[in-house]
# Entry
Amino acid sequence: MTATGKQQLNRKLNLVPKPILLYEKLKFVQRIAVICAVIALVAMGAYAATGYLKINKLDREITTDKEIIAEGHLDELNALKDQYDNLLLGIDSGNITLIPAIDTTMTDLFTIINQHKPEEAKLTGVDGQLKSTGEYTCRIEYSSTNRAVISGFLEKLQEEKLEYINISAITKSVVDENVRWLFSITVKIGGITG
Amino acid sequence: MGKYYVVADFGSGNTKISAYRKVQSGYELFSGAIFKTSATGLKNSETLQTFSQSLRRLNLKSGELYVILPEDDENVLSSEADYPVGNKKELDGIVKNNLASMLKEDESLYYHSWRLVKPYSSGQGLFQIAAVRKEYIDTIHEIAEQHKLKLCYADLAANTVENLYRLIKNDKKHGLSSNDDASVIVEVGHRSVRVVAFSREAVIRTSAAVHNLYRMDKLILDSLHDLKNDQKINLELLKMNPAYALRVSQYEGFLNSLSADIIRFIKQSVSGEERYNLNSVYFTGGMYKTPKLVSTIKESFDVPCYAFPIGDYMHMSENCIHHADNKLYPSEDVFAPSLGALIGGF
# Structure
């Protein structure tokens, strides 16, 4: 027999049998696994708690949104939000001083519109634009299948005599054989100085 | 906090439990206990119960346990044999086949292990085979588990003393300067003496013999007459005192027998097939300070004899060892095999 395996031969004696040594190693692994499991559990608990808090917050937001939807202001709010975003872009784009309280003006306008808006009339388009000259325009379109509803709404708005809006004439639109009567309000807010 | 290491040295006289932690300069012995090993050793449940109590007193949260087992030719046995140096699997088979001849009982009652002591140029090698009763290791393992310790290593006392040579051989202060030189470590325990001869490269030979010095306790006690009932008298201290030891008529005989064994072992080691110049002799163990022992060895070889510099490798905290009231506070020397086990356990 050769001495080829000499390197692997035991150089020290150990009377602790392999199963016990293995058991001790496994116990160590088990301890590590338990520690990992506890850490994972704590992390999951923290994640769940954060999630619960977020859900609570979202619930509150949903409740607020529901209230807004119930009041019928969501579309207007969305439209306003777009305006504000555009305004911010305007501010960033140049040396422009905006008229104060533009948001208040828009809010007032929507308040007036909503005072007169019949149930059957629907908001069918909002398109705002802030020009590089500082002029802010916004086109708001209302429509209804009933011409009388639209003409009544238009008359009431004209009676308000708002100087910063132009109201278009009533036009007819046919989409998929459905007839709709519509008019638009164009808001032009001046007072913007370069 | 670092890792803790506990060594249980079940000596034939005393069981030494020592707890260590690693420090920059070696090991710090920070806690421990010494108690008498019962006459029947590990066979007696009292020894293991006291062992368990000592571990409880250490109160460690975790650690590794190393065990030093006493050879008794019945429950802890070892032998040496020449086998062909093959691969590990082949040798496992050879050892297993020859195990029955070494044991007095069924081999299924024992755990065994082996090691290559020395390879020969012929392709054969000198192997050491050791076996221990399963119940001992299983009980020690159970106790270790109860006290949150991991049983990692169990070896024979002679092997743990042998490990001490690793500390000396490359030491700048104590190391050997030439390949022809040899040094010897003599560990004198309560009942046995172990002699480890080593060169700069390896252990040359490890020998062990039983001595009679343990009988001195009773003989000195008998010579004390009326004082023998005085609880304050410390026999361990008296037997190290020539005024008492030399008064015992049998002492010269015990000493001669012990020193003759040591001298013979050293001569056989350094004057065998390979010859070495004996450079120095290091003494350690609880009984090496017995009167006239070191001087007898020194006279025989005319070489420097030193106390093994255990303090260079191990620091013992003050009053850290729990021991019986009427016992001498132990010196670091009694923990020499424990230090060897620590070195061997890694």
Remarks:
- The mean pLDDT of chain B is 89.
- The radius of gyration of chain B is 20 Å.
